[in-house]
Design goal:
Elements (H helix, E strand, L loop, with lengths): L7 E10 L3 E9 L5 E9 L6 E9 L3 E9 L4 E5 L2 E2 L6 H9 L3 E2 L6 E4 L7 E9 L4 H6 L4 E5 L3 H10 L3 E2 L1 H16 L2
Parallel strand pairs: 4-10, 6-12
Antiparallel strand pairs: 1-2, 2-3, 4-5, 4-7, 5-6, 5-11, 8-10, 9-10
Length: about 180
């Protein structure tokens, strides 16, 4: 093997195949000619891998989050509402999940690829939620949290201390808010 920075692929082996993902073991040689292995999950290409997260921003500078029980961790997790639905169903889905009505001037999304599951695409939609609307206040479901944007990072830490998990998207978003607030000073 030459002394460059290239890896030499040797083989990959299927360890487990589930309904929508495969677990594989890849064997390769590194630039120092050492044989190494790496396990990774890969979404199956025939699956519809479009995931949509909805960020509900309120008129009083807060964000709408859901707390859902995750059987795999046996703990609640705080997350943005997530769906595999299409763009037309976003407002309807948000109302069903939260009990709140959101509006959007445009249903254009921001798109990202999830790094750990490379065949997944994450679309993010932002909705405006008016909490002054009495119907919204009365119809809000129990698993919904309204957290102030100014103290979002602190609320995440508080929830973590209480035994809840926080979805990575929520945490990354809160870190971004924290950094942007420092630039605005």
């Amino acid at each position: 093997m030459s002394n460059n920075d290239e890896l030499t692929y040797l083989e990959d082996q299927l360890i487990y195949s589930g309904k929508s993902i495969d677990l594989k073991l890849v064997t390769y040689k590194d630039p120092k000619d050492i044989t190494r292995s790496w396990e990774f999950f890969m979404r199956k290409p025939e699956e519809d891998n479009k995931i949509t997260q909805i960020i509900g921003l309120t008129n009083n500078s807060s964000v709408v989050l859901l707390t859902k029980h995750q059987p795999i961790h046996n703990k609640p997790i705080v997350q943005f509402p997530l769906t595999k639905g299409n763009e037309i169903d976003i407002i309807e889905f948000f109302k069903k999940e939260t009990g709140l009505t959101g509006t959007s001037p445009t249903l254009k999304s921001k798109c990202a690829y999830l790094p750990c599951l490379t065949k997944s695409t994450l679309f993010t939609y932002t909705l405006n939620v008016n909490l002054d609307d009495q119907v919204n206040k009365q119809s809000m479901l129990n698993n919904v949290s309204i957290w102030p944007l100014g103290s979002l990072f602190e609320k995440i830490e508080e929830n973590r201390k209480n035994g809840s998990l926080v979805d990575a998207s929520v945490e990354i978003w809160s870190i971004g808010l924290q950094f942007s607030s420092q630039f605005n000073k």
